[in-house]
Write a structure and sequence with these properties.
This protein is mostly helical and 180 residues long. The chain is built from nine helices and no strands.
Length: 180
């Protein structure tokens, strides 16, 4: 009887192994300092942009070790599932959700390219202004804060082995702005 239960029990979703990392990405992206000191709009678009930024930095680090590529795919699938669920919770219908998820994936793809620019570069600065503030540059102090936090997060990610990163439940560096 136990063998039959095992036979008909579905295998666990392999993406769930990445759930703690996904939650760490969201927590980092939702840290108040981005929205207060960094002046990122605390709106649906602003939150999406911050999650996309942090996710892009994590995916870049994972991509540095091609043998871990499946973890990046699983993380991206969790992103899609979460965005889908968030839109449905807001009240979007099936027809709209599919189109919006497609747009979000396109936006994430563009951000992956843009956020590959090195820290301190004019290209990264332009990408941050274009994506986080919709092309309207914030006060210099706000932009400097975001640039510094992105650099700190990238430095922390670079110092962390990818095998540890894909199993992490917290991102390295001072990206949360809490001094940790």
């Amino acid at each position: 009887m136990i063998s039959l239960r095992k036979l008909f029990r579905p295998d666990p979703d392999p993406r769930e192994a990445r759930r703690p990392l996904w939650q760490a990405i969201v927590a980092t992206a939702r840290a108040p300092h981005w929205y207060v000191e960094g002046s990122v709009p605390d709106t649906l678009d602003g939150r999406f942009d911050m999650i996309s930024l942090v996710l892009a930095l994590v995916l870049h680090r994972i991509d540095e070790e091609p043998e871990q590529a499946i973890a990046g795919v699983q993380l991206t699938e969790l992103f899609v599932a979460d965005m889908d669920g968030q839109m449905r919770q807001i009240g979007f219908g099936d027809m709209v959700v599919g189109k919006q998820v497609g747009r979000m994936m396109g936006a994430l793809g563009g951000r992956l390219g843009a956020y590959a620019a090195p820290d301190g570069s004019p290209e990264l600065r332009a990408a941050l202004v274009r994506n986080l503030w919709r092309g309207q540059a914030p006060a210099e102090a706000a932009l400097a804060h975001v640039e510094a936090q992105v650099a700190a997060l990238r430095t922390g990610l670079a110092a962390m082995p990818v095998a540890a990163l894909i199993a992490a439940d917290r991102l390295p560096g001072d990206a949360t702005g809490d001094g940790a």
